[in-house]
Amino acid sequence: MTKAGQPIVETDVLVVGSGPAGATAAALLGTYGVRHMLVTKYGWLADTPRAHITNQRAMEVLRDLGLEDRAKVYATPQHLMANNVFCESLAGEELGRLYSWGNHPARKADYDLASPTSHCDLPQNFLEPILIEAAGQRGTSLRFNTEFIDLVQDADGVTATVRDRLSGETSQIRAKYLIGADGGRSRVAEVIGLPMEGQMGRAGSMNIVANVDLTKYVAHRPSVLYWVLQPGAQIGGIGAGVIRMVRPWNEWLFIWGYDISQGERRLSDDEAVSIVRNLVGDDSLDVTIRSTSTWTVNEMYAGHYAVGRVFCMGDAVHRHPPSNGLGSNTSIQDAYNLCWKLKLVLEGKAAPSLLDSYSAERQPVGAQIVKRANKSIGEFEPIFDAVGLLSSSDPAQARRNMDARKANTADARERRRRFYDAVAHKSYEFNCHGVEMNQRYASAAVVPDGTPAPAFARDAELYYQATTWPGAHLPHVWVEHQAQRKSTLDLAGKGRFTLFTGIGGDGWRHAAAAVEAAYGVPVEVVTIGPAGCDALDIYADWFRQSEVDEDGCVLVRPDMYVAWRAKTAQVDASTKLVEVFGTILGRGAEGRQPKASAAA
Length: 600
Prior knowledge:
The protein contains 18 helices and 26 strands. The strands form four sheets. Strands 1, 2, 8, 9, 10, 11, 17 and 18 form an eight-stranded mixed sheet that branches. It has an eight-stranded mixed sheet with strand order 6-5-13-14-15-12-16-19, sandwiched between helices. The radius of gyration is 26 Å and the shape is globular.
């Protein structure tokens, strides 16, 4: 019920949901000084590990927020994620391994050169408190046990109706903008009618979180994921039994598929213990079950991410299985893309049309990762086929067929070759550096420089290719700044635009001042080069990777994506840069008067 006379709470941005997307949005908005509130229907944060693989792009956001070191305290480091192991059980026969997450010696340099950060395994129940603590300390008004019910939009804002789950009372919150980060069953996305493409509930899996010491089975072959290939494993789920490390080596999440057509499967603790012991292959294990739950394999994404003043992000707009470890990483970057734009619009420095670029830039990314994650599930089938799991519905016969692959026969040799090739192909799931890093945005918030998009020299899913082409992410190189070794990424971000130039680029400083005078938007100018510049190009890597002359410039947005670049110095640098910002901010030649847009 609604309490009579209850005043409407007002804020600038209302964030619905406290998962990786919502928590990141709150931390960013707080950091940027934007008045906002976060509501979640839950009494606290994630109580199970859920998402866990944390890639370099997500770690870069945490680094920009000043939270990277805190995250690393709770994360399992990259070298302990070294393998994906394929086996009949942990105690049984191992079939093969795949170096993963950039740990192969031939791939490690690719990852090290790409970012100042490293992959890690940070379970969601550790990530969310880090973000929410930062958000609260930086000004977020937090409301737990507060469920979003409905919303109404008008020309000036959004009125949301929420329900206190403790008292049952409803109330209203008035915001200028609303962020729907309320997960895969998003009520916000439902209310605003976001168009969805794909299918939910394609297969079912059971999660079992348990404390069990598996050191003797895994310490010599460290991994996040151990794939158990045995008869029955291919039913439902992602096609194999999975033993996932939560904390090395005594907390684990066990995954087993079930037939979703038979309804949701509920496990007793005794059944859960039996599944754990079967996957490990040790009936004597001392197992403590912490929780059990079920989930479904989904393949669904939104056709666009916003309606009016309401923006959705995270699982609300891209729903997929955990393959490739892309979920929370993409959610974090959704928030990173939107929040600086909200700040500029709320400050009156940008037109509301800037917000249109959020969906234009992030929706293609969401569609890509949903398709990639589901494709990765399908790429297990050649492994199952080569091993012999698909050869018979009779478990005993399937095991005999699995054993037959080890024979000294032409057929067995061919099966082994197919197995090795199929495992190697899983790099598209476990070493998909390009999928994680190669996003190139196209929107009105990116100003072309007249050059074509650089072609990828290597496989664009497997390999990251750095470029300063407008719409790409700022390349990472190490420089020396104020007697400290820093990444170019450390010199950008923090809610501001950054312009990189070098010797002969003095005109760009005047241009940056002209932008601030015209639009009130500060632009940090950083020169990189020899002594006398702001940062020393100690390895000449910026010289090689900037793709502009020393007197040219690379303009970087607050989310570290390149907004525009100029190959060389320009006589009319101030006029040109003011024009570029007019395009990005949606203000063009109209000076300080923001123009209208669909987001207004």
